[in-house]
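ingest -> fold -> write
write: protein_1
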Amino acid sequence: AKAQSTRGSALVTVAQGRFFSNGFDLGWAQSAGSKKGAEERLRHMVEIFKPIVAALLSLPMPTVAAVTGHASAAGFALALSHDYIFMRRDRGVLYMAEVDLGLTLPDYFSALFEEKIGLFRARRDFLLAGLKMKGDEAEKRGIVEAAYDSEDEVKEASLRMAETLAKRKWDGEVYAEIRKSLYPKLCTMLGLPTKVIASPRL
């Protein structure tokens, strides 16, 4: 997507089936056959997911997640890595499973939730109570832009948002730098450098 970006580009991430993303493959980690092997596989997934979050935060275009099913654990983090989220109200939840599974959070997950979810109570309930939040509540708390009754409506709303933003034909590099400036703690943990870009019109 970055290589193909031009002024007027936007990214919409969609999925099919029950899940937007169910997060890391814990079954694969457990199939290692030992506690040490499982921990190594889990660390591996944490490390290879990190550049995906970094890529979304530095992508030179607006990004929209069309959450048409469950977004759990790393899948929820994936959705939060986008600029805008649209969600179904009739099916699917936002859920951080770590406290229920007995897993701690990677540091960049903690920073992502801290800087993307401004309401402390919502953040606390996701991370410390294993809250499963449906679309209406997520919209009410400002975590998603809007919730809709069907998969098609979510996709259509996501595309409308992307098209509206793309029409502005912003400088993608400037857009990415401004986005990164909103999340300084997260960008530091992801190793994302920032730079000043001066407009030629100034």
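write: protein_2
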Amino acid sequence: VHPNVSQGCQGGCATCSDYNGCLSCKPRLFFVLERIGMKQIGVCLSSCPSGYYGTRYPDINKCAKCKADCDTCFTRNFCTKCKSGFYLYNGKCLEKCPDGLEANNHTMECTSIVHCEASEWSPWSPCTKKGKTCGFKRGNEVRVREIVQHPSARGNPCPATSESRKCIVQRKRCQKEGKGKKNREEKRKKSNKDENKETRQESKGRAARRQNREQRENNNKTQPKKRKAPNKEQDLSPVDTAH
């Protein structure tokens, strides 16, 4: 250590020297040696850099180096992330995963092998042939199931999700869609025709009544008014009455 020790340091150092950098750190900071060429200087950091782990002591907090295959570690013997080409398993970095485990190239970890899982079969569908359920005796019926757990890279593959089998049904004729549609169209036309006929009859009746009423009014206007017959009792003379 260079004898020129200063108390007025910067960058989190409690004590420092011009030659060795930080000699001690302020509370809660970690002391670590960094190599610059052939020289090492001390620095004080809030957390340890990659490849180091922190240890706390009453007098100083230090960053110690992880094992060579660890990228980050919790202690020297417990890795939390491995360097490229290694897989993490129980705090260790391995080149090959143990039996019963597989390498996950995405997380670079050894994980359990996951096998495919499928749900129960659905009930068999109605017996059909070419999309129809009538007009045949022999057809096919199907059932399906879903995949509830997809497998990992080394897991058992998924089974088929559908099955088909032959089926026999009591043969029945299919109702012709065109014939049924034609009957409905004829009924609709007939109903409209009856309604139109009733409407025409009502119109004719109203026209005839109006024509009769107008005829009577015209007759009343053209015929002369009838004179009232004289009262016989009033026309009798006094003589005739006396006689």
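write: annotation protein_2
The two ends are 184 Å apart (CA to CA).
Confidence is low (pLDDT under 50) at residues 232-243.
pipeline exit 0
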